[in-house]
Sequence to fold (408 residues):
Amino acid sequence: MKLRSLQVLCLLNFFIADVRDGLGPFLGIFLVSHHWRAEEIGLVMTLGGLAGLVATFPSGMIVDATRYKRLLIITSSLLITLSTLALWYFPVSAVVIASQIITGLAAAIVAPAIAGITLGIAGQQGFLGQMGRNEAFNHGGNMAVAVLAAVTCWIWGTGSVFLLMTTMAVFTVITTLAINKNDIDHNVARGSEKHDGLAVSVPFFALLKRPELAVTGFTLLLFHLANAAQLPMLSMQVASSPSGSIFTPGTYAALTVAISQAVMIPVALLTSRYASEYGYAKLIVIALIVLPFRAAIASFWSNEFVLFPVQALDGVAAGILGVAIPGLIASLFNGTGHINAALGLVMLLQGLGASLSPALAGAIVSHTSWSFAYLILGGIALCALAIWLIFCRHVFHSAGGMKRNQSA
Fold:
């Protein structure tokens, strides 16, 4: 009977894809249409990201400790949707800032909650395969909405994305409720090998002592510092171009999402299939190599059609990391009872990088150029790759916790 819950879980990932990030890349387009400058937009995005950081690690602790994981997803989805709808009616500074802070706080719970539910239903043996399917459906949802947004933005303007997001939020609530709560083993969901009740606290400093966690977290911090701003930069660059474009700003933003998501679907499935054979560490190297090439292409090719290769490469990197990172953490911390807290700590570090990225890129663009900003981000991406190559083999092997499918 758990098969039905796993199938519904796939549908949940499809619908929540458009809800979790709020307006996502459409936020920049929406604010540009209301005469916001790139630097102001970057700062607002950063405030929302930093607010989410406050909730990231506690979110993992909460998921480990609670039996109400479905309620967490429903509450978060409703808060994100309502705060985003407020932008449509009141696109002023105070409302925009408040909306991004609420979105950041609420979105922080979604990923660990879904990972916890997945692990609680599928168990350690089925976790990797189900996460691959989760990510494939998640990317499929993003792509489907992006295609719809491209059409509706062309016809009715950027405001149509608000309606699409609200519709997806309704289906998110329905599919979450359709998951049988009795199918979730909450001890397995937190990585406990003993049925000794739910954890109520997490030894934070004990987690910090795990060197493999520190290396993974800091590498992802640099990766997302270099990566997060590139998609909104593409859209804002076109929106602010005096020469115009054959695409409307909203349609262009939708295409950036659709292209990357189309690539992420097969990449996520392939990652879940080959991770046990080649190891998480080697697959993560591929994702890290892709990002500097992506930044270089965006820097030297100023044509609006650069979105095709740039977003295809984004799909490769994101498709790998979306499956490999949860799988890596779930394996490393199995038996500790703190899987979701550990995942939350990694997400905190990568969220720190992602939240600082728009402000960094916006400041560089305001004082130099779009091309130079991409080059700086590419340099940061190379630093992430170097750290992973230098430290991951030694740290993971000396930690003694890496199984065959995590070895480099």
Summary: The chain has 16 helices and no strands. Residues 195-202, 398-408 have pLDDT under 50 and may be disordered. The domain at 2-191+200-406 is CATH 1.20.1250.20 (Growth Hormone; Chain: A;). The radius of gyration is 20 Å.
